[in-house]
Amino acid sequence: MTIKGKAYIAGVYEHPTRKADDKSLAQLHAEVAHGALADAGLTKADVDGYFCSGDAPGLGGLSMADYMGLKLRHIDTTETGGSSYVVHVGHAAQAIAAGKCDVALITLAGRPRAEGMATGTAPRNYGAAAPDVAFEFPFGPTVVNQYAMAAMRHMHQFGTTSAQLAWIKVAASRHAQHNPHALLREVVTVEDVVSSPMVADPLHRLDCCVITDGGGAIVVTRPEIARSLKRPRVRVLGAGEAVKHQAGGKIDLTYTGAVWSGPAAFAEAAVRPADVKYVSIYDSFTITVLITLEDLGFCDKGQGGKFVADGTLISGVGRLPFNTDGGGLCNNHPANRGGLTKVVEAVRQLRGEAHPAVQVKHCDIALAHGTGGSLATRHASATLIMERES
Amino acid sequence: MSKSGRSIPAPPVSPETRPFWDAAAAGRLLLKRCEACREPHYYPRAICPFCGSDRTTWLEASGGGVIYSYSVFRRAPVPYAIAYVTLDEGPTMMTNIVDADLDALRIGQRVRVRFTPTDGGPPVPTFAPA
After folding, report:
1. Mutation target among B1, B16, B69, B103 for the A interface, most CBs of A within 10 A
2. Which of A43, A112, A369, B129 sits between 20 and 30 A of B22, alpha carbons compared?
3. What is the tens place of the pLDDT at every residue in A75-85?
4. Global pTM?
5. Cβ–Cβ of A250/B92 closer than 8 Å?
6. Phi, psi of A110 (to 5 degrees)
């Protein structure tokens, strides 16, 4: 069974806050839910399917259904880190196609800044029962030094340079200057990036995404409901998900699960990379974007550095505009999970509602991609392809 | 505290992995090998991650390997090198590079295992330039 054309994204919302000292986590989830439903022209009473992930408080979906007062006949709390919400859109489309729900609500929220969390620089211990912890945690793995090892290997194997990686941040900053909600709105240069302090070789501070509070929500509906609403229609064409792991020690840091999730999504959508006018690519770090673009087939493996250099990703300049909201590198990375906002900006582009300075002309097909977990060793990749219905 | 000045937390030991840590305390690095498919793997598991067999046995590694990738964490109070080392037996493992000039590390460099004390637990396998 295909999901192609069986579901539409009817509403999206990105919370404007970037530091939520005065709000609770449950409140943020409920505020973004309200925002996305209002955007769609629906109400809480229309929701019969709910999707959330590990960022939801308490008993997750149960606590949030209780807080918001949702009457549900379908629930899915798939946890794949920051890619969860891209996975959720695919799962929501499947549930809708199977008749399990009519209006699916997806929410994400978090307060890492308000809580003073050392997101990328403190080793994370997932508990003694996690089978890998004894063999990794003593060595001080952080988010940033694990992604840095993928970057180091890519440089060694393919000749990728820090200046090439920096172009990804430059493109994000050029877009973020137009986003009044972006945490970082200052335009930066390649020189700014490579001269920023080294965090973990070879990743500099400006190779890393922001840490922000806030969240976002997505509403997915049946075609009949989408057509009854007043908003521009965004049809789900295809979705793919894949998990990549360490393969018992046959570790290869040069590719991600996007080599599997991408072809699955393109096949279901029956489109090719050349058909895609805009991409939202998960950008926890610059290297995440570079490897993902290769894996999705926008360039050959190892050629990502050359591909992104000289502004290929800058809207109005290059041939593959990306993350026109400023992405996680400049705008927002709520709850340290960037998948949801990737879908939001892709929907804005397809609707023609991106900022005029970054809106892609004739944007009929867009792709959103999430990467959750530790790059190339334990992560889930999720690819979503959407189309504007004229 | 280790010689590098970074405090290394003790690895949690489970019944499944106790032989590995007992060997580490005796200065020996163990892998697991599957008797059904003959593939070695790391980290060690009771069930082979390749074929699913429960006929896995301990295999002593030679202790030699090469750096597959690494990163010096400059933001830490005491900078340290995390690395993936590919063992001569095949599997690649996460570790630290110790007793080395952290500015002179390179991918492909030959390294040899040693064992670094932890805070109240068995020592962990780290590597130094061979």
Report:
1. B69
2. B129
3. 999 999 999 99
4. 0.97
5. yes
6. -170, 165
